[in-house]
Amino acid sequence: MIDPIKLVQTYPQVPLTVDCVIFGFDENSLKVLLIKSDLSQYHGKLSLLGDNVHTHEDLDTAANRVLVQRTGMTNVFLEQVHTFSKPDRHPGGRVVTTVYASLLNVKHHELLLHDNELKWHTVNEISEMAFDHKQILDLCTSWLRKRVQEQPLAFNLLPVKFSLRQLQNVYEAILDIKLDRRNFRKKFATMGFLNDTNQLETNVTHRPGKLYTFDFVQYQQKKKHFIGIDF
Amino acid sequence: MIDPIKLVQTYPQVPLTVDCVIFGFDENSLKVLLIKSDLSQYHGKLSLLGDNVHTHEDLDTAANRVLVQRTGMTNVFLEQVHTFSKPDRHPGGRVVTTVYASLLNVKHHELLLHDNELKWHTVNEISEMAFDHKQILDLCTSWLRKRVQEQPLAFNLLPVKFSLRQLQNVYEAILDIKLDRRNFRKKFATMGFLNDTNQLETNVTHRPGKLYTFDFVQYQQKKKHFIGIDF
DNA sequence: GCAAAAGTGTTGTCCTTACACCCATGC
DNA sequence: GCATGGGTGTAAGGACAACACTTTTGC
């Protein structure tokens, strides 16, 4: 019989960090919130928002802390994606990082802590990044492409009231495809969890579209559990 | 400008482990490979296979090492699922664990290292486990249910040559549903990546079924990339 | 010959796709 | 009145679900 405290004392210890891939949507393209690295090796290169994990803090809490520090937003979608652990991924020695992805509406917040040139960047214009962050971003983008098709995540990237055009733009930007407008609208109409607000867009230079809200309760009731074997 | 080595030295360090949820299929039910814990707090309780992560070792390597030590199998499906980090999840103090899931054919290997009563257990008969391992197992079972519908993972649980009945049994056991035999066979026939071996089952007490193999190359060519918005 | 599972087709319904015209607004 | 995107319906094809009988083998 083994004493757990003594056992754990024999384990090697590793510095842990979290990195947040914070996606936003604006001007019809998918954005990600990045800073410029201040490490000497990666000076000026783009970097994800991250921090070390504090003692007694779990990973979800750490990721949420990073997000709140930078965006001031609480109650935002934030989900663990993957843990990266190549021994040489960090120039400072071994650092294991757990990556979280978040989706939020660019217009819904003011950026906080503007140090290190915190800015939104268009995802498909990013080439080089610090560390293995480009690889991480690519994984999270794939992850988002998949998730957005099977869960109503797109609404996190939009204002509470949005037009069907805006919604379609989100899908087209993330999936990098064109969708048929009539079929797209029909699909969301039959799904039945968009609520018509009886309001119209304003400040548009054309016929204003209706504004809708997402009905989360309806979604919870209607969502599918078994999809079907399909690959 | 910051020196990365000095920076990383300021980070708190944490013991890391990997835990492997090794799924198998036998006697028409989904199994998982477990040991009995030898920690004093959890004496006799069922536990996942795990180990601490060695210095200079990445997580994939550590998980693979655990798998090979116990099953002797290499080149087995093994994928990272989630990292668990609640500060009180381990009685020996803070331990962060990254969980991997593996699928393998019970008949294809001899268990190695039979210490701690290493055995296959039927997944839906497991109630209590050591640590947070029941919660981990439940997450991995959900993960498997989802993945098995969108990727051809089921074949990892079967012999190289299998009957359609066996294949259907895998899906029925994992998804915990009954499927229509005719529609199931039609579906896999039209997918077009099962190869007829022109062999029949032997040692069965009824009409023998044809044996098929999975054609991975065909799958790679035919697999879908865009599924469609559907939730 | 009996038990047990293999093998096989059709029909109706639903979902998906493709496609074109008029409408409301700002300028 | 013109440019811009909003809003709408239909028809064809494909996928899925429901359903029953004959065949082959071991015993």
Could you characterize what this model shows?
Two copies of one chain form a homodimer. Chain A is an alpha+beta fold and 231 residues long. Chain A folds into two domains: 8-149, Alpha-Beta Complex (Nucleoside Triphosphate Pyrophosphohydrolase); 153-225, Orthogonal Bundle (Arc Repressor Mutant, subunit A), CATH 1.10.10. Helix content of chain A is 29%, strand content 26%. Chain A is built from six helices and nine strands. Chain A has helices at residues 4-9, 59-71, 133-150, 164-175, 181-191, 216-222, and strands at 13-26, 29-36, 46-47, 49-52, 77-84, 96-103, 119-122, 194-200, 210-214. In chain A, strands 1, 2, 3, 4, 5, 6 and 7 form a seven-stranded mixed beta sheet that branches. A two-stranded antiparallel sheet of chain A has the order 8-9. The longest helix of chain A has 18 residues, at 133-150. Chain A is globular. The N and C termini of chain A lie far apart (47 Å). At the A-B interface, helix 1, strand 1, strand 5 and helix 3 of A face helix 1, strand 1, strand 5 and helix 3 of B. Chain A binds a DNA duplex (27 and 27 nucleotides) through residues 163-165, 180-183, 185-187, 190, 201, 204-210, 228.
